[in-house]
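User: For a reading group we're discussing how well predicted structures match intuition. Take ACY2 Aspartoacylase. Before you show the prediction, I'll give you the sequence so everyone sees exactly what went in.
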Amino acid sequence: GVEVGPQPQGVARADVLDKMRKIVKHGLDFVQLFNEGKEFPPCTIEVFKIMEKVDYPRNKNGEIIAIIHPKLQDQDWQPLKNGDPLFLTLDGEVIPYQGNCTVYPTFINEAAYYEKKQAFVKTEKIKLTAKHLRLSVL
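Assistant: Thanks. Here is the predicted 3D structure of ACY2 Aspartoacylase, as structure tokens, for the group to look at:
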């Protein structure tokens, strides 16, 4: 499966569908070239690895007491550093990010995750290396 987003639930967006088509086409092109015997050299890519899911601040009754800070909204995959604004309480108090490393939040303030008690997901940027790849005939 391929999930391309973010986009609101029940909405079909032309730009997102175009990205999905391109991703699927690249995947199919790779499979065809691999099956034809093309050799692929080693490569390194940056990816984002999920660290943890972060909930909204809540009171003792489990009610949300802060929302995503405006400076974090729509900043998926952008670096979040210690001290950066994270949440904004209903009283206007800023709750900063407190962490010992830079993280890359995603799924920020997604409506589909409210019921799952998830304000965003913290990810870390890592590098993956793929070895030389070619079809081996048995």
